Amino acid sequence: MFKFLKKKFKNFEEAIEEEVKKAVETGNGGAEAAADEIATAPESKSKKISEKAKKKVEEELRKSLELEKEIGEKKKASLTISEKKLEELMWDLEMGLLEADVALPVVEDIKNSVKSQLPYISRKNAGKAVEETLRKAIEKILSTSEKNFDEFLKESKKPVVLMFVGVNGTGKTTSIAKLAYRLKKQGFSCILGACDTFRPGAIEQLELHANKIGVKLIKHDAGTDPAAVAYDAIEHAKAKYKDVVLLDTAGRMQTNVNLMDEMKKIKKVANPDMIIFVGDALTGNDAVEQARKFDEVVGIDGIILNKVDADAKGGAALSIAYTIGKPLLFIGTGQGYDDQIVFTPDWMIKRLFD
Ligand SMILES: Nc1nc2c(ncn2[C@@H]2O[C@H](COP(=O)(O)OP(=O)(O)OP(=O)(O)O)[C@@H](O)[C@H]2O)c(=O)[nH]1
Ligand SMILES: [Mg+2]
Q: 353, 7 in Cβ contact below 8 A?
């Protein structure tokens, strides 16, 4: 998982470390050494302060502040890698991220964060320091995903209606089955609505899952109006005091106007509490573009990204929430009911750096 992206980050860390080492060996690290020397000074200063503390506290404090400023300036001047080399390494990083299917705005953000922090990196443990800088940049990017789905569900008025949308084959039906399985285990009662009346076999596919998991399915005949199925599923849930309605919909290309219109109709009738876009991690930037289009047409509230188990690159998982501005709620890591993980920034950061 995400091997490719992980490697790109590692390469960058190692390249910076290598360059810093070279610069120190050839004697270009003087300013950095001076800064390191000064960096140890506040401790001795503070000892002095404690000795003469009573009278001179204010005076020392002022000196300390000046010293801190001085360290900052020296550190800034301490980068031992030439501007040209740095540009070269940044370029390699940028290309690596693009190859890993990281979306352009995310690449820009990472680049800017790293660029602004690099001048402060100490020559000691430069690789580790660069990793820390990258981690911080990634944390910031992933912070869009800090929505807590479980809290949302607990707090929402029942029945909570969830509508799943996305292009063909991204794993909508499987995601619904996984989520219903999870919710049932948590003690929520679920109703599945078979609103994919378009693709032959789609109703049977969902029915099979419903039977296996042990949840109720509401269905009409193939070819009928999916909005009517949604309506019935919700009415049923209200009458039987069920907690959650999960509406499957037919996969559609974001360019298919008729099917996109049909989705608007389902939305109008169902008035869902959450529209969840389901994407396929393996499609990289395309998944991000699809999410953007679905958001424009119908408005999405959250994202599930599937097939992450087979995704060596990692760009879609890193980029999708930040680019669309909607949280990545779950990721699919296989075909089994248990293969759905709550997405957290920490989860991804661990996989990229540990
Ligand atoms: N490896 C892996 N396969 C997955 C994952 N999620 C779904 N799949 C597989 O992807 C295929 C398509 O899944 P579906 O759930 O039918 O996709 P869909 O979006 O409902 O497809 P349509 O109804 O045709 O639009 C199935 O073979 C799933 O088992 C995942 O997280 N990892
Ligand atoms: Mg389906």
A: no
What are 19-61's pLDDT values in tens digits? 888 877 776 544 444 444 444 444 444 455 456 555 666 676 6
pLDDT tens readout for residues 90-107: 999 999 999 999 999 999
pLDDT at 120 over 60: yes
Compute the radius of gyration of the chain from its Cα atoms: 27
> Could you tell me if the CB of 173 is within 6 A of ligand 1?
yes
Element (DSSP H or E) covering residue 314? none
CB 161, CB 238: distance < 8 Å: no
Q: Where are the alpha helices (H) located in 250-334, listed in sequence order?
A: 257-270, 285-297, 315-324
Stated pTM of the model: 0.86
Dist. CA 171 → ligand 2 center (Å): 7
Query: Does an H or E element contain 207, and which?
Result: helix 202-213
Ligand 1 pocket test, candidate residues 263, 276, 306, most atoms within 8 A of CB: 306
Residues 6+ apart with CB under 8 A from 258: none
pLDDT in tens, 299-322: 999 999 999 999 999 999 999 999
Q: How far is the CA of 306 from the centre of ligand 2 (A)?
A: 13
Taking the alpha carbons at both ends of the chain, their separation in whole angstroms is 12
Q: Which atom of ligand 1 is nearest to the CA of 278?
A: 19
Residue 124, pLDDT score: 78
pLDDT of residue 35: 43
Between CA 181 and CA 338 the distance in angstroms is 8
Query: What are the beta bridge partners of residue 331?
Result: 305, 341
Sheet with 328-332: list strands edge to edge: 216-218, 190-195, 244-249, 160-165, 274-280, 302-306, 328-332, 340-342
Which ligand 1 atom sits nearest the alpha carbon of residue 331? 31
pLDDT at residue 68, as a whole number: 63
The DSSP result for 130-194, as a single string, is HHHHHHHHHHHHHGGG---HHHHHHHSPSSEEEEEE-STTSSHHHHHHHHHHHHHHTT--EEEEE
d(CA 153, CA 178): 16
